[in-house]
């Protein structure tokens, strides 16, 4: 069942169409990728979900019921442009935002202690935000977003500004939150993390949805019968009526061959042929990366 | 609502804890107290500077003892001293100057010289002139051979002082003082201007800070923009009131304590002791409504001022002040919030500030003019128009304003301020999420018509 649904949402700013009949359905306890080039309308959609602005037309549902103003308490939002009061101390600030999300002071305090310990930032409690590095402030903001344990979390580019170690920490936290029951909408330009984290995606370009579905389905659909064969040592195979060789390369004492099937051929048959040519190390369908799909889809629509 | 109170609390606490706030709150009363105390101290020191003046008459002794000593000057009547002798060495003899009176003075008023090294103060000259004028008049009258001249002089002595009285709506006559009304008008008008302007711009700065640091997006995903806006406006108003209260209390405390220390050390005690006595007599006057012509001139002047201060419609003034402060502040602060939301940094505010500043300045100028003529058409209309009425009406009230005028002005004020807050909230809601665009008035007009 979809925890969150947007149906036929449109929004216009002046004479510029920001969203044109966009629909998304986010299954419960999944991570949903919201992709698209800059200025496609992602931020507008996110703001509409957060009820920062209202749609001109279309409907929004949370848990099957129409989205209400009080539902902001069930949503946590990490905006792309991070914002904290620079002159305010980290701890006080976290308490302030927690209270705005409806937590009592004592409850907020308890949860903040837990999170500050978990992310190992207890020393920063009394520091002013302007003394923190970008990555440090980012961690604080992450905590502020998840503190009230919202059912729906919206992360807009959550990994920018983090070093690889912290990126991993935050990734794990996001996965942990999902395991505990949260549903996550995740907007990013980093396609690697989409492959790694997202279950489903919607790709928006020029205010319209141009691609949607589960990440596996999409990649399989765009895979277009391509396979990667890896042999030990230098091996050469030729194409036949059933498949063409797209390219082959030899490096590190391994041969990698990309082939594309043309007719109805079972993968076992390909493997049987291959086994005659040399020592097969691996045989995989050559799934295109989300990055490739993104470039192809957006490029085609232009 | 609970969330607004969380916002108000943050706005209040972060501002009150700032070093600049604490310093200003402590320094300003010290300055105010200094302004009050320094002149007092200077005046006291002035007293020690007694000027000794030698008085010489050429070939006569008509005015011996006529010029009485004052606090500032002592007059020493010298006989058998030649003018030339003294003019050359009066300073060495300890005199401030030499006053030479020629016998022709009876008919030629300028037959008198005051020789000194410094320019003598005007008060000293007036004292000399008045004393001599009276004596010469008396001497001339004496030439008519009237009996008991001294008695006649006493009875004809008059001191005219116009008593202003105001007829209020109930027909009661009250003594008033234009001076007090003017002072009140000035104080209230200026206070309104200061409060509205200082705290209004603080609201604007706060909004810009939130916008540039991008905090605003996080906040309005939790609360409605209007809650954030009103929370900020109210929080800052409370900061203003806190500061104001501390100023009043500290200034009063410092002034009274320093004054008591000073007066203990010097002879001023006598002076301060006479004041309560005067106050009591003044009260008597209020109660009995007796004419004060049998009192000494200073005392009657004092009781008149006191009388008129007591007769000000204080309840009305305080009520109106609170009303106009709240509505005026809300009106201007919401406009300032809208401006803050429309720009990316403070330098861009200039083009929007001017149209907001102009009505305030006009209000202040009309308020100052009000003191000359409180019922002029300009003053009347400006006390009706909501953008200037908080300042101008406050300046008019001490002079007496019919209730229907106050009523209409307040009604207009309420309607306008609700309209302004509503419009400002709409502009604010759109503006805080707009970046990198140079905002124009036209743009803001468009935002007004955006739907939720």
Oligomeric status: heterodimer
The coarse overall form of chain A would be globular
Provide the domain count of chain B.
2
C-alpha-based Rg of chain A, rounded: 24 Å
In short:
The complex is a heterodimer of chains A (302) and B (452). Chain A is α/β, with parallel strands linked by helices.
Task: Give structural notes.
The complex is a heterodimer of chains A (302) and B (452). Chain A is 33% helix and 31% strand. Chain A has 2 domains: 2-219, Rossmann fold (3-Layer(aba) Sandwich); 224-301. Chain A contains 9 helices and 14 strands. Chain A is α/β, with parallel strands linked by helices and 302 residues long. The mean pLDDT of chain A is 88. In chain A, helix 2 crosses helix 3 and helix 2 (90-100) runs parallel beside helix 4. Chain B has 2 domains: 50-156, Periplasmic binding protein-like II (D-Maltodextrin-Binding Protein, domain 2, 3-Layer(aba) Sandwich); 178-259 and 304-448, no CATH class. Chain B is 65% helix and 7% strand. In chain B, strand 5 and strand 6 form a beta hairpin. The longest helix of chain B is centred in the middle third of the chain and has 41 residues, at 225-265. The model of chain B is unreliable at 267-295 (pLDDT under 50). The interface between A and B is medium-sized, with 31 and 24 residues.
Task: List the main descriptive attributes of the protein structure presented here.
heterodimer, A: 302 residues, alpha/beta, 4-stranded antiparallel sheet, 9 helices, 31% strand, B: 452 residues, D-Maltodextrin-Binding Protein, domain 2, 2 domains, two-stranded antiparallel ribbon
List the helices and strands and how they pair.
The complex is a heterodimer of chains A (302) and B (452).
Chain A: E1 2-13, E2 16-27, E3 31-35, H1 42-49, E4 57-62, E5 65-66, E6 75-78, H2 90-100, H3 105-118, H4 134-146, E7 152-156, H5 164-179, E8 183-187, H6 191-197, E9 200-205, E10 208-214, H7 215-223, E11 226-232, E12 243-251, E13 254-261, H8 267-277, E14 279-285, H9 290-301
Helix pairs in contact in A: 2-3, 2-4
Chain B: H1 2-16, H2 19-47, E1 51-57, E2 73-78, H3 83-89, E3 97-101, E4 112-116, H4 122-142, H5 149-156, E5 164-167, E6 173-176, H6 178-212, H7 215-219, H8 225-265, H9 269-288, H10 297-310, H11 314-342, H12 350-370, H13 377-382, H14 389-396, H15 403-431, H16 441-448
Parallel strand pairs in B: 1-2, 1-3
Antiparallel strand pairs in B: 3-4, 5-6
Helix pairs in contact in B: 1-8, 2-8, 6-8, 6-11, 6-12, 6-14, 8-11, 9-10, 11-14, 11-15, 12-14, 15-16
């Amino acid at each position: 069942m979809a925890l969150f649904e947007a149906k036929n949402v449109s929004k216009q700013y002046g004479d510029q169409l920001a969203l044109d009949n966009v629909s998304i359905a986010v299954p419960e306890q999944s991570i949903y990728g919201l992709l698209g080039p800059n200025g496609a309308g992602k931020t507008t959609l996110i703001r509409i979900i957060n009820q920062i602005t209202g749609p001109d037309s279309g409907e929004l549902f949370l848990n099957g019921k129409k989205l209400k103003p009080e539902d902001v308490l069930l949503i946590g939002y990490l905006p792309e442009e991070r914002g904290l009061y620079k002159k305010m101390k980290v701890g006080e600030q976290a308490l302030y935002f927690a209270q705005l999300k409806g937590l009592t002071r004592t409850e907020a305090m308890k949860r903040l202690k837990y999170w500050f310990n978990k992310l190992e930032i207890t020393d920063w409690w009394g520091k002013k935000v302007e003394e923190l590095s970008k990555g440090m402030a980012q961690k604080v903001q992450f905590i502020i977003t998840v503190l009230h344990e919202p059912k729906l979390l919206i992360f807009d580019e959550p990994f920018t500004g983090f070093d690889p170690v912290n990126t991993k920490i935050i990734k794990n936290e996001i996965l942990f939150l999902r395991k505990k029951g949260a549903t996550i909408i995740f907007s990013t330009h980093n396609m690697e993390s989409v492959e790694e984290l997202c279950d489903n995606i919607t790709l928006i370009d020029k205010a319209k949805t141009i691609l949607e579905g589960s990440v596996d389905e999409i990649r399989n659909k765009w895979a277009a019968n391509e396979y990667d064969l890896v042999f030990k040592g230098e091996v050469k195979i030729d194409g036949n009526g059933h498949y063409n060789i797209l390219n082959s390369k030899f490096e590190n004492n391994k041969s990698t061959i990309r082939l594309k099937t043309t007719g109805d051929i079972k993968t076992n048959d390909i493997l049987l042929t291959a086994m005659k040519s040399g020592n097969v190390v691996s045989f995989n369908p050559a799934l295109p990366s989300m990055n490739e799909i993104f470039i192809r889809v957006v490029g085609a629509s232009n | 609502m609970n969330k607004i109170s969380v916002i108000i609390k943050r706005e209040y606490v972060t501002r009150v804890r700032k070093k600049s706030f604490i310093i200003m709150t402590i320094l300003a009363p010290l300055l105010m107290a200094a302004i009050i105390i320094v002149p007092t101290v200077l005046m006291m020191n002035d007293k020690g500077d007694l000027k000794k003046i030698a008085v010489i008459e050429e070939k006569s002794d008509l005015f011996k003892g006529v010029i009485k000593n004052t606090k500032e000057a002592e007059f020493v009547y010298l006989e058998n001293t030649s003018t030339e002798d003294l003019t050359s060495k009066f300073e060495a003899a300890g005199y401030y100057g030499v006053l030479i009176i020629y016998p022709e003075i009876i008919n030629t008023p300028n037959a008198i010289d005051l020789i000194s090294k410094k320019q003598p103060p005007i008060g000293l000259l007036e004292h000399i002139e008045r004393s001599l004028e009276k004596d010469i008049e008396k001497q001339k009258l004496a030439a008519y051979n009237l009996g008991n001249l001294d008695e006649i002089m006493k009875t004809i002595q008059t001191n005219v002082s116009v008593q202003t009285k105001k007829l209020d709506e109930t027909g009661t006559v009250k003594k008033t003082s234009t001076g007090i009304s003017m002072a009140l008008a000035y104080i209230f008008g200026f206070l309104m201007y200061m409060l509205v302007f200082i705290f209004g711009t603080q609201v604007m700065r706060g909004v810009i800070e939130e916008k540039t640091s991008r905090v605003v997006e996080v906040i309005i995903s939790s609360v409605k923009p209007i809650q954030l806006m009103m929370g900020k406006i109210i929080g800052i108003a409370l900061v203003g009131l806190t500061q104001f209260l501390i100023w009043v209390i500290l200034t009063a405390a410092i002034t009274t304590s320093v004054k008591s220390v000073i007066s203990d050390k010097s002879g001023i005690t006598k002076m301060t002791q006479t004041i309560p006595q005067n106050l009591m007599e003044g009260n008597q006057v209020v109660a009995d409504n007796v004419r004060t012509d049998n009192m000494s001139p200073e005392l009657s002047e004092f009781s008149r001022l006191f009388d008129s201060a007591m007769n000000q419609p204080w309840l009305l003034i305080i009520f109106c002040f609170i009303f106009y402060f709240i509505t005026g502040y809300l009106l201007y602060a919401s406009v300032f919030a809208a401006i803050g939301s429309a720009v990316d940094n403070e330098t861009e505010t200039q083009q929007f500030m001017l149209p907001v500043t102009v009505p305030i300045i006009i209000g202040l100028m009309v308020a100052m003019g009000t003191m000359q003529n409180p019922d002029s058409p300009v003053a009347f209309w400006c006390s009706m128009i909501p953008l200037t009425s908080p300042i101008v009406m406050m300046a008019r009230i001490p002079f007496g304003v019919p209730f229907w005028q106050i009523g209409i002005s307040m009604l207009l004020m309420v309607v306008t301020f609700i309209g302004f807050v509503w419009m400002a909230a709409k502009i604010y809601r759109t503006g805080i999420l707009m970046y990198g665009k140079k905002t124009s008035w036209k743009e803001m007009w468009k935002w007004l018509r955006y739907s939720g």
